[in-house]
Amino acid sequence: MLERAPRFQPLGHYISLKGNGVEMVRRMGIFDACEARSAPLEEVRLYSAASGRYLRSEHSATLAKTLGGYILLRRADLQSALHDLTAEHADIRFGIEILRTRPDANQVEVTLSDGTTEIGDLLVGADGIHSAVRGLAFGSGFERPLGGYYIAITQRVHHGLDPVVHTYLGTGRMVNLLPVSPDSVSAVVYLGADVDAPPRNDVLAMRDHLLATCADFPDEVHNVLADLGTDDFVFADAIAQIDLPRISQDRVALVGDAAHCPTFLSGMGTSLALQDTHILAGSLARSRDNVAEGLSRYEEVMAPIARRYRDSAASAHAALLTSSQVKARIRDLALRVIPDRVFERGMRRFYDSERPLANLPGP
């Protein structure tokens, strides 16, 4: 296992595992470890950003029941659970990058940044939306921008917020606040296509940009953004998807965002990556020495699942980040008045929880 970072770093934003994502950590044997690391936030509340008006809420227990599981935790905590599971059995090398790949029908040779080469049966790229492995083995041109940006923030701040997820919906903008402790907040700010691009390399300029962009949002949002400083974690990127005709080629396979990033707005990026790895491992195990057959089975199972997630995210982008004030008001009204049963059925469909878990073969 090759990792570009020089060491294991407990950084990153919060992620939510839902439905089949929770089933995957169960099958991997790390459900208890993930649940023990979960954020102590028992509810998700939605508000209109313009008026501050409460729209609706969902309790975490209801989400878990509706979706077949729900765990909110830091990405670093999931990485830690996976690291604890595999560290004794895997050769994990930090501070290493792949510079060149030479795959053929029988093996793949890689040249590494430390000057060494490795030869293996299969190279798996799990290196995110800007995947270097994908670029080396598949080429470029597979990124599909949906329009806009997201900014993930983790900061130390005395916020005074209730211990629930606060989601503020505006016109072309959305802000999630996760007060994970009395003096710590994780936030995700979404900016639509009609909003100016944020300055990515200057935290203080980013703070000023977000305060100006979200000037009509409630004070709770302003108080968090105004306290953003140079010691806080900030990550910004374009809202984009990856759409490849194939997710394997010769002896190279891609998983997660490297293969078919659905974007943050799908709410299922991590769950999709876990399904990818589980199905890939199961397909290879079942095909034994026939790697090509295993990769073909992996694509057959995962391609339609990933397509559904990308389609859901595109729909969410259109609804949540609409630049139309009329459409934003209609969205907010619908969230207020739609019956719980109808809303929960829509969530099951959006998060793919209507697909039987038994349809996910594994090792």
From TrEMBL:
GO terms for molecular function: FAD binding. Residues 16-309 form the FAD-binding domain. Pfam families: FAD_binding_3. PANTHER family: OXIDOREDUCTASE-RELATED (PTHR46865). This is FAD-dependent oxidoreductase. It comes from Nocardia ninae NBRC 108245.
